[in-house]
Amino acid sequence: MTDTLATWLYAVTAAPEDGTPPQGLTGVADEPVRLVEGAGLAAVVGSVPLADFDEDALRGHLEDLEWLERTARAHHRVINGAARHGQVIPLRFATLYHDDDRVRAMLRERREDFTDTLRRVAGRTEWGVKAYVDPRSFLPDPDESEDEGSPGTAYLMRRRAQRQDQETAHLRATERAEEIHSSLAALAVATAAHPPQDSALAAYEGWMVLNNSYLVPDDLTEDFTALVRALGERYPAVTLEVSGPWPPYSFTAPPKPAGDAQPEEKPS
Amino acid sequence: MTADRAPRPGRRIEVDEESVRKSLAGLVLTIVELLRQLMERQALRRVEQGGISDEQMEKLGLTLMALERNMAELREHFGLTEDDLNLDLGPLGPLLPRDRDP
């Protein structure tokens, strides 16, 4: 029987004093969510059928956008539910262990790491801010002077001007994004930059010039959202989108090999 | 659907001749467009370096202009848009820079 189930991890939290799992939560396989405790920590887990979640099955499923969306939402829902009971370290989608014993062993092994991380994110919340611009509003004013000479030369000049304008627009938009980022970062204890999303998947027009996460102390939440609004008003050419509160997805990743993007932490 | 279970002679691939023609044209035109853009970039670089005469510049400009017009005609002929002429190279992004990309 145990061979047919695996343990899917959602999050790690401090062990709750009363030891009760989050009530009424179901996970990626509609399974009830439970806690596996060890080393003063608790892993929020569910038992999922291997038939659907072993390596081969997962590889197939990950190609299926509909399955992926449904399951990713379930994963996030459990993390959010667990976060209502206290600070969590969200775990990466499709973190699977063979059984509960291995989960306990993992908790013991990484106890220090987890405890440090929990302490670091305690009383703080992740917010996402995206900024989009319409490149046209950053183009330099058209320069009417150049319409000299013969058609071939004029064509080349026009193309050159277009290219330069495009570069200028990008530079200006990036500078504006930098300004916005530094204002927001002043209220955050840590920031993380993400690559712009694929416009085909995220369905937006124009350029995404900012896609960052900010770890904001809970008592500054209102200041932070007010600042996003104020910046949006100050820079009408930039569309700002704030999302959250999120469990601290961007600030709890295990140490990665050098070369990967690391959140920047300011000494507090 | 059980009646359909009879052994079939291999797997059949539905081929719509028109769509194959269009995809092939799209692929070929994408490569031509890539070359055109590279040539244009190279031409602009040479203009900026100032190493060419006015006459050469005019000739280059006319050639590139004609090429752009030809491309537009070919696209229209095959019912393709500018966005169709691109390849998604996954993590490397699109083959051709799109206007809306930085």
From TrEMBL, chain A:
GO terms for cellular component: gas vesicle. One of its GO terms (biological process) is gas vesicle organization. InterPro entries: GvpL/GvpF (IPR009430). The keyword Transmembrane does not apply. It is found in: Gas vesicle. Pfam families: GvpL_GvpF. Residues 245-268 are annotated as: Disordered. Keywords: Gas vesicle. It comes from the Bacteria. Belongs to the gas vesicle GvpF/GvpL family. PANTHER family: PROTEIN GVPL 2. This is GvpL/GvpF family gas vesicle protein. It comes from Streptomyces malaysiensis subsp. samsunensis.
From TrEMBL, chain B:
It is found in: Gas vesicle. The keyword Transport does not apply. GO terms for biological process: gas vesicle organization. Keywords: Gas vesicle. The keyword Manganese does not apply. GO terms for cellular component: gas vesicle. Its main location: other. Belongs to the gas vesicle GvpK family. PANTHER family: PROTEIN GVPK 1. This is Gas vesicle protein K. It comes from Streptomyces malaysiensis subsp. samsunensis.
